[in-house]
Each structure stands twice: as C-alpha cells, then as structure tokens.
C-alpha cells in the first residue's frame, strides 16, 4: 500500500534530504506553501489582500511527540498573531489551528490542546481576528468539537471544520448551524474506514451537497471549502434561495489552487479566503497529506501542471 510508505517517508531524514534537494521539489512546494518563514507568510497575506482575497494561515507543525513541541507550536501562533497585528492585517487574516499540533494526541492532550488554543484565541481577539479549529481524522472529532464548545463560551467567533465524507457530519452540521457559528465545510482528505465514512466520490459529493444545504439554510456563517465548480455553483444558488447576502458566507480554497477562480469570485464581490500554510515543516506536512490519501498526489500535480 502506498499510504504507509509515504507516511514512513514523512519521518525519514534520508528521504527528507533526497526530496528537499530534488530540483523538481521546490517549485511544487512554493506553489502550495507560502514559505518557511513568518516574513514570507506575511508577504503572501499582503499580496492576497491586495487582490481582494482574505486569508487563513496554518503554521505547519502537527504530528508532535511531546508537550514542549506543543508549546512551541502555540508560541509560533502567538508570534504570528502579534506580527499580523503589527502589520494591520487582523481584519484580513485569521488563523487555522490543528489541535494535534497543540498536543491533542498526547496523554492528557485534550486539556493541553484546549489551554494552547485558548491562548491563541485570546491573542487573535486582541487584534480583531478569529481562530478556526481544523478537523483531522475521525478519532479526534469528539475532542475537537468539545474544545470548540469550551472556546466559544469566551470566543464565540471560533470556527469549526466539518468533513462531509464522515457519516456523522449531517448531524454535526445541524448542531452547528446556529447564530454566530462559523463552519468550514470540506469533503475530507483523510483515509477513513467504511464504518465511519463514505468511500465513493459520488457518495461524498452527495453528502457535501446535503451538508451544504443544512448550513446555508441555518443561522450560522458557512465557509464553503471546495474547489469543485458544482459545489461553488450550488452554494451560490442556495444563498439566493435562502436570501443570504454575500457577507453572510464565504468561499475558501487552498493557496495555489484555482487562483483564477478565487479572483473571479472576488471580482463578483463575493468573500473569498485562501488557506495559506507556511513553515519549515513543509516536508512532513506534504508527505502526510499524500499518505492520508495518495490520490492527493494526482490532484496536486494536476493543479501544478495547469497553473496558468
């Protein structure tokens, strides 16, 4: 199976060196990751903001093994938010947090991740922006939603991510389609068993459409995380059906993917946000994404070859 091989490669120093030094690697990485450093990330935010596109920033650093790493990841977000505030970008950029990077999977990790996320929410609120909790594999969903509920008591704009391919997500969407609730809906990129997730593309697409209808009909703030033209068109039709203005929902797409579509939607006056990952840990991030679902490889390469 290719998945375990890629996952093993993500932890291999030798493979890291080989992949990092390959001439073809850096152009692909630069296409989808804003850079290794905070100044490079800020430059990407400023460039996108000038084009009318907002940003959610992801500091790469999940898959940790101890609490010290969790605290370093938390501190990286605090530094990021301080920099965003200093540049006056709080109104244009929010941050996305993977709770695994804050220690969620460690012993006692739920409380550790909650404490770290709370500090980040405090820093985000201080500069007038928000935090969205990324969703990871199905074993973390209950913990992530519980942390979301705790954070929303003090920071009600804290966002959630739902993955349409999980069988449970329609119920989760109904629970979160309430006033003040920000929900990013994605199809899902992790390799999950049939006991918890739809397996065929058709079933996943149908599930996404059902969840999208729930969110657009509700009282929350849907964030449509999709590059699929059909889902984008459906979201526009649903917004019209339910009388939503263009400021009551937004489209979200990955940095470097379908840039022309992002610009088209923004030119129509729609709210568009790019998901921008950055950090020196790009190798592990990239390989783990491939390991979760090797078909992602074809998606990334297809996007790269059609960049123009």
Describe this entry's structure for a reader.
- It is a single chain.
- By secondary structure, the chain is of the alpha/beta class.
- 52% of the residues lie in helices and 14% in strands.
- The chain is built from 13 helices and eight strands.
- It has helices at 2-10, 13-21, 25-32, 38-50, 67-86, 109-126, 141-154, 169-176, 201-217, 229-241, 259-267, 282-292, 295-305; strands at residues 54-59, 93-98, 131-134, 159-163, 182-186, 221-225, 250-254, 272-278.
- The chain has an eight-stranded parallel barrel, surrounded by eight helices.
- β7, α11 and β8 (272-278) form a beta-alpha-beta unit.
- The protein is globular, with a radius of gyration of 18 Å.
- The chain starts with a helix and ends with a helix.
- The mean pLDDT is 89.
- It catalyses: L-proline + a quinone = (S)-1-pyrroline-5-carboxylate + a quinol + H(+).
Name the features:
308 residues; eight-stranded parallel barrel; EC 1.5.5.2; oxidoreductase
How is the secondary structure organized here?
Layout: H1 2-10, H2 13-21, H3 25-32, H4 38-50, E1 54-59, H5 67-86, E2 93-98, H6 109-126, E3 131-134, H7 141-154, E4 159-163, H8 169-176, E5 182-186, H9 201-217, E6 221-225, H10 229-241, E7 250-254, H11 259-267, E8 272-278, H12 282-292, H13 295-305
Helix pairs in contact: 1-12, 5-6, 6-7, 8-9, 9-10
The side-by-side strand order for the widest beta sheet comes to 1-2-3-4-5-6-7-8
The number of distinct β-strands equals: 8
- Which value, in Å, is the CA radius of gyration? 18 Å
How many angstroms does the end-to-end distance come to? 33 Å
Q: Which class of secondary structure composition applies to the elements?
A: alpha/beta
Give the rounded overall mean pLDDT: 89
Sequence stretches where pLDDT stays below 50 over 5 or more residues? none
Helix and strand pattern? HHHHEHEHEHEHEHEHEHEHH
Main sheet specs: 8 strands, parallel, barrel
**Approximately how much helix is present in the residues?**
40-55%
Q: How many H/I helical runs?
A: 13
How large a portion of the residues is in β-strands, by DSSP E? 5-15%
EC number: 1.5.5.2
Catalytic activity: L-proline + a quinone = (S)-1-pyrroline-5-carboxylate + a quinol + H(+)
Protein name: proline dehydrogenase
Organism: Actinoallomurus vinaceus
């Amino acid at each position: 199976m290719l998945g375990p091989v890629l996952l093993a490669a993500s932890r291999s120093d030798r493979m890291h060196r080989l992949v990092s030094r390959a001439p073809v690697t850096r152009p692909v990485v630069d296409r989808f990751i804003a850079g290794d450093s905070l100044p490079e990330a800020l430059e990407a935010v400023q460039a996108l903001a000038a084009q009318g596109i907002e940003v959610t920033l992801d500091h790469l650093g999940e898959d940790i093994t101890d609490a010290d790493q969790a605290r370093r990841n938390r501190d990286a977000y605090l530094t990021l938010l301080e920099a965003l505030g200093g540049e006056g970008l709080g109104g244009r950029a929010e941050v996305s947090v993977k709770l695994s990077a804050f220690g969620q999977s460690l012993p006692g990790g739920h409380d550790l991740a909650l404490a770290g996320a709370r500090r980040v929410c405090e820093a985000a609120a201080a500069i007038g922006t928000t935090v969205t909790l990324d969703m990871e594999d199905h074993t973390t969903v209950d913990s992530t939603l519980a942390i979301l509920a705790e954070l929303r008591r003090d920071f009600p704009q804290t966002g959630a991510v739902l993955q349409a391919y999980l069988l449970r997500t329609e119920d989760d969407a109904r629970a979160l389609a309430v006033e003040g609730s920000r929900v990013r809906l994605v199809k899902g990129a992790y390799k999950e068993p049939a006991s918890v997730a739809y397996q065929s593309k058709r079933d996943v697409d149908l599930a996404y459409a059902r969840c999208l209808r729930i969110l657009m009909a509700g009282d929350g703030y849907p964030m449509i995380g999709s590059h699929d033209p059909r889902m984008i068109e459906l979201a526009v039709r649903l917004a019209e059906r339910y009388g939503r203005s263009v400021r009551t929902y937004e489209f979200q797409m990955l940095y470097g993917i379908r840039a022309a579509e992002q610009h088209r939607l923004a030119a129509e006056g729609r709210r568009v946000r790019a998901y921008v990952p950055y950090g020196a840990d790009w190798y592990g991030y990239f390989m783990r994404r491939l390991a979760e679902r090797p078909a992602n490889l074809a998606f990334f390469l297809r996007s790269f070859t059609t960049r123009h």
